[in-house]
Specification:
Elements (H helix, E strand, L loop, with lengths): L15 H11 L4 H8 L7 H13 L1 H18 L3 H13 L5 H18 L29 H15 L7
Length: about 170
């Protein structure tokens, strides 16, 4: 096995326990906890689990897989404003069945409105640079409701056929 970091790890090269260990480490588990979970050794002593975790973590294939999973996770966490609005819109449309779910849904709608700019002040003052007494044209922007924005996001998602879930 070569030590090139750009070469993708073939999961067949790793045993299932090693792959599971790498995935747990990439999610933020400690080496000992990941080792115990991946190898089914929850009752193993701390010393033996630490030794086993060290040996698995030392494997170059496991190290490469952890690095790839972490890199993929970092890419997923960078969301555009449209991605955030889409996620918030989906959450806002979910049915609320309990009082706490209603409160959470209201908070999602509030965050969506702030993100979309719906909490901007109604009154805007502008400096006019036309000569005094000369007419100037004002074209007021038509406000768009949050409900209309959410409907537009949902329609765009359906048009794209984008049915995947965000993780």
């Amino acid at each position: 096995m070569s030590d090139t970091p750009d070469k993708p790890v073939t999961l067949r090269a790793l045993r299932p326990q090693q792959e599971h260990f790498a995935r747990l480490i990439a999610r933020g588990w400690t080496q000992i906890a990941a080792y115990r979970k991946a190898y089914g050794k929850e009752k193993q002593s701390m010393r033996n689990a630490a030794n086993g975790a060290y040996l698995v973590a030392k494997n170059k294939g496991v190290q490469r897989l952890i690095a790839q999973l972490r890199a993929a996770s970092e890419v997923k966490t960078i969301l555009t404003i449209n991605d955030r609005l889409r996620l918030l819109a989906e959450s806002a449309q979910a049915r609320a069945k309990t009082p706490s779910a209603h409160a959470a849904r209201a908070k999602v709608i509030e965050v969506y409105n702030k993100t979309a700019g719906d909490h901007a002040p109604e009154r805007h003052e502008h400096t006019v640079t036309t000569p005094p007494g000369a007419p100037f044209e004002i074209a007021p922007a038509r406000p768009v409701s949050a409900r209309a924005k959410i409907a537009a996001l949902v329609a765009a998602k359906k048009a794209r056929g984008d049915e995947d879930q965000f993780e």
